[in-house]
UniProtKB/TrEMBL annotation:
Protein name (record): Uncharacterized protein
TM stretches of this protein: 193-212
Keyword tags: Membrane, Signal, Transmembrane, Transmembrane helix
Residues annotated as signal peptide: 1-19
Length: 220
């Protein structure tokens, strides 16, 4: 019986997505995403916000120009630091929000960050907000799909339709995010491991020399 109910829920959620009629919306000249036809658009100090209510949740798509004083990012690890800062900032805005399942993702040729923010008002009202972040040297794109805990099994089709619809212009390439496109996030970790390994070897040599010296003294 539970399997039948679960199957019905999936079919129902998929049907509602197509029934609503998601349509492509240009966030700017470079990024397009599909949203319900009844979406609202708002422009606040250069920040473009596209929002809509779905049958099971809500969608918010934001494109915000980066400050002209921002220095170009050089390596993948620099991009990762920017993403970490954004995730932390979003958590702080909610007060008691907890970022879960934070992970790297790829949208077209660009690197992105995905995570789920979970909030609880203390009275059992748990809310989920799925995020995808995209950063370029010109702008930051924040795509969000929110829904209550009670619908988390029903919204999968809507979320997949939304995030899977993100389209990038061929003009956007990895060097629009950072200049050294051959670098990886693990570069810094590799150097750190080398330093740690070198330190262990030096420590071992010192201990061994002390041992030999004491042994020589005891033999004399």
């Amino acid at each position: 019986m539970k399997k039948l109910l679960f199957l019905f829920a999936i079919l129902f959620s998929a049907t509602t997505v197509f029934a609503q009629g998601f349509k492509p919306v240009k966030m700017d000249s470079l990024v397009t995403v599909s949203m319900p036809a009844n979406y609202n658009e708002k422009d606040t100090l250069g920040q473009h916000i596209y929002s809509a209510t779905t049958d099971l949740g809500y969608i918010i798509s934001i494109v915000e120009p980066n400050a002209k004083t921002n220095q170009p990012l050089k390596k993948a690890k620099d991009l990762n630091k920017v993403f970490d800062k954004y995730v932390t900032g979003i958590q702080k805005q909610t007060g008691n929000g907890s970022a879960q399942n934070v992970r790297d993702t790829t949208i077209g040729t660009l690197k992105g960050k995905a995570f789920t923010l979970i909030t609880d008002d203390g009275s059992g009202n748990v809310q989920y907000r799925d995020f995808v972040l995209i950063y370029t040297k010109e702008a930051t794109y924040t795509l969000q799909f929110g829904y209550p805990d009670t619908r988390k099994e029903l919204v999968k089709a809507e979320g997949k339709a939304y995030f899977g619809s993100i389209k990038l212009s061929p003009q956007l390439q990895r060097n629009d995010q950072y200049t050294d496109i051959n670098s990886t996030v693990s570069d810094g970790n590799t150097y750190r491991m080398i330093e740690i390994g070198g330190g262990i070897i030096v420590l071992f040599v010192i201990v061994w020399l002390v041992f030999l010296r004491r042994r020589r003294v005891s033999l004399e």
